């Protein structure tokens, strides 16, 4: 398959890239400052330019989404807006604009996260964004068929515990290899409207 991979240079994106490429897929990598194509998908115009540059694809895979982490008493409306633009609207636009560029039975795989179900202090913006993505996936799936859309919802990566482990006290981590399996399931499988929780 010809797959558009957004966020390919991050820790997760690099692992997804390696896994999908090893399975014989053709990857077009996308990032703000690196990759085969360089576009900012937080801007809907950037998403339009991305699809124009990429041409027809069989699948779109997202491993990117930025959200701020601050206590509720300190977080500002602009922070919630940034979380919405950076993780929710950007991925919604990948699907909304992508239906005309993805193969008839192609797929979209989005990224949410454990904080939709298990919030942590300072994580309200991320919880909001993750929950919104998961609700969107379930709703969009019934409209875009036979194209498919799913989300992968991992907990903290084992490979990132040194940086982020203290934010997830008592929560088990997951190896990136297991997270990439969920991406394979979404891209190569037949299900739609699913949230693949990797815990």
Automatic annotation (TrEMBL):
Q: Which residues form a coiled coil?
A: none
Q: Do you know which Pfam families this protein is assigned to?
A: adh_short_C2
Keywords assigned: Oxidoreductase
What's this protein's family per the entry? Belongs to the short-chain dehydrogenases/reductases (SDR) family.
Tree of life domain: Bacteria
Q: What name has this protein been given in UniProt?
A: Short chain dehydrogenase
Among its keywords, does the record have Oxidoreductase?
Answer: yes
